Fold this protein.
Amino acid sequence: MRCVIVFCALLLSCHAQLAEVKPELNVTLHKGLSERIGNFSIELLYHTTLAQDKVSNLIISPITVWTVLAVLAEGASDSTLTQITTALRITPALKEAARREYQEIYKWLQVKTNTVELQRLNAMFMDVSNDLQKDFVDVAKEYDTHVIPANFSDSNTTTAAINSLVSSVTHGRIPMLVDSSSIENSKLVLTSVLYFKGQWTAPFNASYTTKQPFYDSSGNQIGEVNMMYRRHNYPFANIKTLQAKVLEIPYGKDNRLSMLIMLPNPGVSLNDMFYNFGNESLDTIFNELKISAEQYSDDEVDCLLPRFKIETSLELTDALKKMGIIDLFDERKARLPLMAYLPTHVSRIIHKAEIEVTEEGTVASAATAAFLGNRIGALKFEANKPFCYLIVEKVTNSITFGGFYHTPSLF
């Protein structure tokens, strides 16, 4: 029997009036599991693109990947379990505690306001002939994963059901995630969908958007972009240990979600900067941004950011193998006895995502020393060379989406 794992992500801008949802805050969320998920996210981003021979633009939702693997870990044993939990930064003995803390984090990944919407859905399509362990199904529900019966012998109907669910959650932005050939010989499909719409707290003025050159890390022009411009008192810091300038662009009115732009300093490659990022934490970066904002509260930043759109369709199996998850994909070595009565392995992991960044907002179905110099007038932050971006839910410091802008285009 084969098991295909499927998950997708999308970001996009929001205009509808929505009722706000505010779960109770657990003040310890930034420690423990959320930080481990953050470390997993950073490593996944690295192995997905920067570790490859050819670096390209990327959009990915790391937390959806973590969620699907966490569900699989509940059904795993032996080396399969060890490899998954090591990559997830949890121990088999602490799975139950991690499950409880994940439920707290997950509450915050549900936002509905008039300027920001963040929605998520996890689902497990199970063949009617496939007997899953009842305990596994119960545990999957603790990850808010809905079990949906399906007839995999009728691949067209099952494919339509999966695509319909994904299209509904992403508001039609991802109408087709799988086709009938992609689920052949499968008995189970896991999906994790995350949808985001966000208006900038301070939108860019479209009349100031101009065509500007874009350079590689060596300073050579490699293309042109439509560069947006806005002067605003953005939180900003030049973080010495990161060897990068970091700018925070908030969404909405309550400062729950923000985009972080990390721009390498002159002479520093995107790879080197991101390697340094692996030794930092989001808590530390946000703390430095806060200190900088308090020290220079009246200063403004001239922000120049490309308007861009990225669409990504990824096979994540190789990246996860580099992170140590190997046996899960081997039909002979995979051990998932707590999941299904029949021998089961994962054939492949598929991830599809989109992001649009425009003047209105985003569309997407040791200690750290900060260098704080004297500011005279407006500071300039110009993202005219390869950079990393992260969209972070700040209560839990969850990286909902992240990626790299490396290859310029006029959008």
